[in-house]
Amino acid sequence: MVGHASGRPRAEDPPGEATARKTSAKAPEQSTKQPSRSGKQSGPRTARPRQSSNSPRRHVKGSPSQAPSQVPQKASPRTVGSRGTSQIGHLRAAWGRRLARWGERLSRPWEGSKASEPDGSSAQRHRPRRSGGADDSAQRSEQVTLTYYCLLISTLVLETFGLIMVFSVQSVTVAANGGNAFTDFAKYLVFAVVGTVGMIGVSRMPLSWFPRVSWVVLGLTIAMQCLVFTPIGVNVYGNRNWILVPGVGTAQPSEFIKVALALVLGTLATWYTAKRRDRTAVAGWVGVAIAIVAVLGGQDLGTVIILVLIVAGALWVGGMRKRWFALLGVLGLLLFAGASLLSANRRARIIAWLHPEGADPTGVGYQPKHGMWALGTGGWFGVGPGSSRQKWGYLTQADSDYIFAVLGEEFGLVGTLVVIVLFAVIGGCCLRLMRRHSTTYVVATTSAIGAWIVGQAIINMSVVTGALPVLGVPLPLVSRGGTALVSVLLAIGVLLAFARHEPGAQEALSTSPGALRRSLAVIVPRRNRARDK
How far is CA 69 from CA 9, 48, 61, 72, 291, in A? Predict the structure, then answer.
């Protein structure tokens, strides 16, 4: 190629000048050989004559003096492959840094602006900084209080959903028995109000308050559970797990044992992590065993399963070795099998679950079959609120164990998925609390409560859908049961207290204005402006 006088290369020559360029490349004055440093003649090299700064330079095709950028050369396949491999490596490294930054933001969102890359460099240089400091503080406040508000909102939505479903079912069942559905629902509404107020009160307690009162609560609940073996105990469907309270009705003390066990197991898990093996620790485990045996004495196998889940959830994060954990699991399965075989009713339920085609459609196979029919009738969007047909005497436990089937019939698959998502949100909040707290007590107690609520919900839905035999386990926050609702709300209050003491959440909640203050902040300046005019 021939450059211009200014030294810049010009465009490609026309094809007709290729022969002239080849001829000029073979000229003797351009193919002179130069001796190497060793004195031997090297390969033919092109001599570059001295030229003035004003004379144009003439380069020969293939000469070593020509710059690589001036002659477009076709890259070899090996060069292309290595270049592609390097690009893939850069992409992998970039995505690795991005995923690490996202994981850091998910696990510690309040430190999102301080997250670091895997190589130790700060991630703040990769994202632009906000101009306003007030916006940053507001966003950080929303992030640290995310667990608190997600847990509170999902609980209130599930509780409201449960009140609607209970009234929908009781409007038929209570009226069929000659009672007043509104009076019966008003009694249940009192339990909901008491539980909600208790939840808010417990959420305001300091963290040091829970380990101190846990042992007292466990002793009181065990004493209440022993009352089921007295004349005031009530036998329902073969389970003696209720007591008769004058002016209130029946109450189930084993529901409060769940809360007490979750609080006590946090302390026991802390002692187990610290390798404390004194008499006090042994006495604590004996108290846990007494509580479980007291419930098992009333032949309430479904509640015993939930208590075992609570213990397992606390021990799993408490540092118990996997082999001991597996051994306890095997022993629990053996006890469950033995208790099921000793009861003719439970044995018939298991056989009906294993062989549903041979189950008595008017006996043990009656409710599972009608529960599946209710879910199938609902379709995508359900038959409408209050329009269920299975609650008209076909499902005898439509307001407790099989309320999920009625919910699916009236609100369809969409309604059931909403309930499942809300329970998943509660489980996600428990996991978030466990990640953001460093104390063993909070982590173990949160794990126990999460295993209780989410595990009980999974068991109830599995029974309704036929994945498990009938166990008599209600759906938390949705099924009818005053003591069950109050106990779950108190447990949620404990989780809310833990969420209020997350790193940075206490300051954010104390400084963030409420709804009334935000409204006045907008209304009052307008009044002042009108008055000034």
Answer: 10, 19, 13, 7, 84
**Burial classification of residue 38, based on how many CB atoms lie within 10 Å of its CB (0-12 exposed, 13-18 middle, 19 or more buried):** exposed
For residue 395 the two structure tokens come to 């499902």
Domain, as residue range, for 376 = 146-502
DSSP label of 69: G
- Please give the pLDDT value at position 3: 45
Q: Is residue 297 part of a domain?
A: yes
Q: What is the pLDDT of residue 55?
A: 47
pLDDT value at position 257?
94
b/e per residue 298-320 (b: at least 16 CB within 10 A): bbbbbbbbbbbbbbbbbbbbbeb
Q: What is the pLDDT of residue 142?
A: 52
Is residue 301 a part of any domain in this protein? yes
* 255's tokens: 């529901």
Q: Is 1 exposed, middle or buried (0-12, 13-18, 19+ CB in 10 A)?
A: middle
Q: How far apart are CA 248 and CA 226, in angstroms?
A: 19
Q: How many domains does the chain have?
A: 1
The per-residue pLDDT for 190 is 92
Rounded Cα–Cα distance for residues 278 and 485 (Å):
37
Contact status, residue 422 vs residue 157, Cβ threshold 8 Å:
yes
The answer to whether 208 and 214 have CB atoms below 8 angstroms apart is: no
CA separation, residue 293 to residues 52, 257, 266, 520 (Å): 106, 12, 20, 56
d(C-alpha 364, C-alpha 170), whole Å:
23
Average pLDDT across each block of 10 residues of the chain; the chain has 533 residues. List them in order. Answer: 45 47 46 44 48 47 45 47 59 72 50 37 38 45 76 94 90 75 85 94 91 92 91 81 83 92 91 80 90 87 90 84 81 79 79 79 80 87 85 82 91 93 94 88 93 94 90 90 92 93 71 52 46 45
Rg of the Cα atoms in the chain: 37
Task: Evaluate whether residue 476 is within a structural domain.
Answer: yes
The answer to whether residues 444 and 269 touch, using CB atoms and an 8 Å cutoff, is yes
Q: Is residue 323 part of a domain?
A: yes
Amino acid identity at 24: S
Q: Classify residue 45 by burial, with Cβ atoms within 10 Å: 0-12, 13-18, 19+.
A: middle
| Full-model pTM | 0.70
DSSP class per residue in 223-274? HHHHGGGSTTEEEETTEEEEEEETTTEEE-THHHHHHHHHHHHHHHHHHHHT
* pLDDT on residue 242: 86
Strands ordered across the beta sheet of 239-245? 233-236, 239-245, 249-251
